[in-house]
Amino acid sequence: MTGTLSVQSILARFLPGQTLDSHRRKVCARLTDCRTAQMGGMEMRCDHCQARSICYYGCRDRHCPQCQGRASQQWSTRQRSLLLPVPYFHLVFTLPHTLNGWVQLHPDVVYRCLFAAVWDTLKQFGRNTRHLGGELHRVTRSGEIDGVLDGLMQHEWVVYTRHCLNQAESVVDYLARYTHRIAISNGRLLTMEDDRIAFRYKDYRDHSRLKTQWLDGQEFVRRFLMHILPKGFMRIRHFGYLSNRTQRRKLAVIRHCLWQPPKPEATLENLLAQRC
Questions:
Q1: pLDDT above 70: residue 272
Q2: 53 lies in some domain
């Protein structure tokens, strides 16, 4: 294949003719138009040699491999500015593979329950670290839901936690890359022959070895579309003192309390000095 292989070029070739809902159709339109004349741009001209160049605007869609690199860096910079001089812990909540099918059918419901469960767990972490809330409604037959959940509750829900110590900035950088990751980056695409696409992946079941997989173009697009998030879904959410409504006020109070010099202890000598 000649030219640069990218998610954008693959969508442009294999997406026409596929049936999409309005949300996925709009996302794919932004991705295929990203940094092209369809998005508009600006023309730059050199003052000395009069050379001209055109820079087209990016779509800034959260599923776009061309735009998420810069968005990740900007988010990391903002979050670093909110860090406090206190110990941090990195916690990871993982859904069981049993729920994968439900996530594909009703991602907005399951993701919303997951976020609610995480926040409820963090609030009760000191008292009951095994508690995990959340409900599933109208996913499929009610009897099947109860049976699956009853079976899941028989297993321990282990939350991975690690003390960050003085590495809070590194964890923020890691979260920036992880939360802004899209289905597949252009760097993992290798080549396209006829209607088949080769890409690189890491096989975690085989000691994280890098391997190559071939997919038909239509199948590649189908799998990519599965990773498009529901409309309006917030992938990053802040709770507690970092919530958008109270962040500025609470951060100011916390920083004032942390940087305020400690009061002298109420010793006998201090009390006598105050009376005199």
A1: no
A2: no
C-alpha distance from residue 107 to each of 30, 82, 238 (Å):
22, 30, 20
User: Is 25 within a domain?
Assistant: no
Q: How confident is the model at residue 170 (pLDDT cuts 50, 70, 90)?
A: confident
Number of domains observed in the structure of the chain: 1
Residue (of 54, 50, 61) closest to 7 by Cα position: 61
Cβ pair 239, 119 in contact under 8 A: yes
Q: Distance of CA 259 to CAs 46, 202, 253, Å? A: 50, 46, 10
Question: 17 in a domain, yes or no?
Answer: no
User: What pLDDT score was predicted for residue 276?
Assistant: 46
User: Shortest CA distance to 34 belongs to which of 14, 53, 7?
Assistant: 7
Task: Place 34 in a pLDDT band, splitting at 50, 70 and 90.
Answer: very high
Tell me the residue range of the domain where 219 lies. 65-261
Residue 158, token pair as written in the block: 């282990």
